[in-house]
Design goal:
The protein is of the alpha/beta class. The chain has a single domain, classed as 3-Layer(aba) Sandwich (Rossmann fold). 32% of the residues lie in helices and 23% in strands. It has eight helices and ten strands. The protein starts with 22 loop residues before the first helix and ends with a strand. Bound molecules: adenosine-5'-triphosphate and magnesium ion.
Amino acid sequence: MREQRGQAEAIPPVRAEDRPSVSYDQAQPTGPAQNDLVISSRDLYRVFGEGDTAVSAVNGISMDVGQGEFVAVVGRSGSGKTTLLNLLSGLDRPTSGEVTFQGRDLTGLSERDLVELRRRHIGFVFQSFGLMPLLSALENVELPLHIMGTSWRERRRRAQEALQMVGLGARSRHRPYELSGGEQQRVSIARALVTGANAVFADEPTGELDTTTAASIGAILQEVARERKATVITATHDLALAAMSDRIVRMVDGSIEE
Ligand SMILES: Nc1ncnc2c1ncn2[C@@H]1O[C@H](COP(=O)(O)OP(=O)(O)OP(=O)(O)O)[C@@H](O)[C@H]1O
Ligand SMILES: [Mg+2]
């Protein structure tokens, strides 16, 4: 399912006229209303392959992440961090177990509804930034809104606002190659937020950055959680980034180490 990452933009719930007519928004919550619970998993398993070569990448994980919470998933290479993030964000489906996003069961959604949900409610930030090289910073940030059919004027306004939030208001006309690595990552954070996404997933967001720049990205993710009250879940080897989170989840062989 990793190839799907390329289409992962982000988008939120804010405007009534932007709401999709898909079943996600019509679906009834599966459990009691828990307004501050955004993402939740129960007995989550993900097995790749079959028989002797089967790899159990995620091994029975149950966790809850609340609104505005900044969680860092840490663990050795191969411990299952990326697999867990992909399951929690609906990029991949579990072999068994359940993932709920704002009270709705993701495992029951069709592929189409999942894509729609990711576009509107979930933002993604990747290690390699994932920006379009020929587009300006502003145009890159506008892209998810473009896909949603937001009007030109509204796109510009919201994209400019998102760039300002990450401190790049004055760089909006620059192309990615005219920006530093840290600035490119800030553009990708702005793109993840521009739709109003209430959950942001960041897989090794500082993996290609020096430590000072990495700290500034950590500070922005912190602000996204505290000021915008978005749920932020990052997988990282960067202990300085993990230290900036509200909670560290340590994975060992696909399980959470208590
Ligand atoms: N598509 C796949 N097919 C088969 N095995 C996979 C697949 N994706 C991941 N795995 C295996 O699942 C395990 C967990 O991988 P995962 O990428 O989640 O680890 P990670 O903690 O993110 O590692 P890293 O820190 O290196 O990014 C590894 O053993 C990996 O080889
Ligand atoms: Mg990984």
